[in-house]
Specification:
65% helix, 8 helices, 4 strands, alpha+beta, Alpha-lytic protease prodomain-like, 311 residues, 2 domains, four-stranded mixed β-sheet
């Protein structure tokens, strides 16, 4: 049986893809980390849980962005004898860690909020407003930087952190305004719980997607039956089986399949057309296809149906 044919175009594409992503993440990291410490000190001084929660979230943003940038760098490492695909899955693991980190943060916010309800504290509302406004501006700038870069699983995880942090800044601003105008301090832990709930939704959504990738699930935008049908419609292909489609990393989708054909001499043309079809129709570039030549036999005749378009 002939050896499987491979398409390596996806590796070159991934190199440029991760290089640009790493630079974007580093810029976002510098902007976020530069303000998280200031916000934490301001939250401690003002007594605002909303501001402290926002600072803690901003610190996890920095960690998330740092992990994402590191994962993007690792993803550029070439394949080795131990890692034949390279380290492209590093960004998936970073996204998994980030989602779990968000869940830990939620637990901290909820615990502190419940404690604040039982033991109210004085809060300097005007200081909360000023610092939170600056934090909101920085978060919006970082979100803009990330949205302009490559939309990968890793950058999306980082963007979710930043958008959640922007909501935390809005909550802190709102809490500061209410405290300054009415003196009602319970608004601070209440809005902190609201931010925790919003972060929880994002964290669970991200965690579900990461687990789907780690479980070798079919990418959400790919329809496995349509991919199989497109391969089966190619001239010279009688049947497709053992079809698998999965995500190696963001931007790199892999496919493997066995194609049953009549003549091995047809294989070079079939392979070239299959590669082009998968790239154009489904954005799949890392392809491994195994040709299987059928030998006519009365006992198996008719077992492998020929597509109607070939009749």
């Amino acid at each position: 049986m002939p050896a499987p044919e491979h398409n390596h175009d996806g590796h070159d594409h991934g190199h440029h893809h991760h290089t640009g992503q790493g630079a974007t993440l580093i810029i976002a990291l510098v902007l976020t980390l530069s303000f998280s410490g200031i916000e934490a000190l301001a939250g401690w001084w003002s007594g605002s849980l909303a501001l402290l929660s926002d600072a803690a979230h901003m610190l996890t943003d920095s960690s998330a962005l740092g992990l994402a940038a590191g994962a993007a760098w690792l993803a550029r490492r070439p394949p080795s004898a131990k890692h034949s695909y390279g380290l492209v899955r590093a960004e998936v693991l970073a996204a998994l860690f980030n989602s779990l980190l968000m869940l830990v943060l939620i637990g901290y916010i909820v615990h502190e909020a419940i404690d604040r309800f039982g033991t109210p504290r004085d809060i300097k509302g005007s200081a909360v407003i000023g610092v939170a406004v600056i934090g909101l501006i920085i978060n919006l700038v970082v979100a803009w930087v990330l949205s302009r870069g490559e939309h990968t699983l890793n950058s999306r995880a980082a963007l979710l952190h930043v958008l959640g942090d922007a909501l935390g800044s809005v909550a802190a601003i709102t809490a500061g305004i209410v405290i300054v105008t009415t003196g009602w301090t319970p608004i601070d832990p209440l809005l902190s719980l609201l931010v925790a709930a919003l972060i929880l939704v994002s964290a669970l959504r991200l965690l579900r997607e990461v687990v789907h990738v780690l479980m070798e699930g079919v990418p959400g935008h790919v329809r496995l039956n349509v991919v199989g049908q497109d391969l089966a419609k190619l001239d010279g292909v009688l049947r497709v089986h053992d079809l698998h489609v999965w995500t190696l990393s963001s931007g790199t989708i892999a496919l493997s399949a066995h194609l049953e054909i009549r003549e091995l001499s047809d294989w070079p043309d079939i392979l070239e057309i299959a590669r082009q079809t998968m790239d154009d129709q489904h954005g799949i570039r890392h392809i491994t296809l195994q040709p299987e030549v059928l030998v006519a036999h009365p006992l198996v005749r008719g077992t492998y149906p020929v597509p109607t378009s070939h009749a």
